Amino acid sequence: xxxxQSLSKxxxxxxxxxxxxxxxxxxxxxxxxxGSGSGKTTTLKMVNRLIEPTAGRVMIDxxxxxxxxxxxxxxxIGYVFQRVGLFPHMSVGENIAIPLTLIGWPPPRIQQRVDExxxxxxxxPGVSSxxxxxxxxxxxxxxxxxxxxxxxxxxxxxxxxxFGALDPLTRDRLQQSxxxxxxxxxxxxxxxxxxxxxxxxxxxRIGIMRDGKLxxxxxxxxxxxxxxxxxxxxxxxxPMRQARIVDALLExxxx
Length: 255
Prior knowledge:
By secondary structure, the protein is of the alpha/beta class. Helices cover 44% and strands 24% of the residues. Helix 7 (168-185) links the parallel strand 7 and strand 8. Helix 3 packs across helix 4 (107-120), helix 3 packs parallel to helix 6 and helix 4 crosses helix 6 (138-149).
């Protein structure tokens, strides 16, 4: 379980995150949704201490992450972000192996784990392992990023708009692939996005942020049926309005 308790981050007079509290249950995927400057990515980065909080704390499985050495914390939490950050001079297999090399696994065990991970993210080990990142498509790079984040078998995953830069078809395939992986491995995850349609598709619950505050949290059904204010209502209505436009176009085509 992830417990965020009265978490705040200030930069001088700017309040990026303001007294945020929420829990993520074991095996749950919580989406943090909001526009630019809402505080969602800052919150995510405070969970694994890429950013240190001004106040409050984060607990993972009952342990305050502020007391965990950073190298140990980073091994326990997988992190996937939009710009994958693969090392261009390394092969795919070497990129995935980085966390395992750092914790001292022997080469044969590393190779076995790399092959397992490539299979898990639906990339052929025999074809993909020796390729360079420059030889991969955007979707393939993102799959490698997910594999690397899973290398040390973390229980917790953090994902910062991981599929936002991809074309719609690739994005949809990776969303479904990640959901299958998450269920298979029973991962606890926080997923940041600004896209309400994506939030509704992937989230067990959705937390909506604005100006550093959490303004509503609930299941997709909760938000659809009982938005707390006009801002949430507008977010919800955007994908619904787009769907109605598509339906109208289909009706015109069939008429």
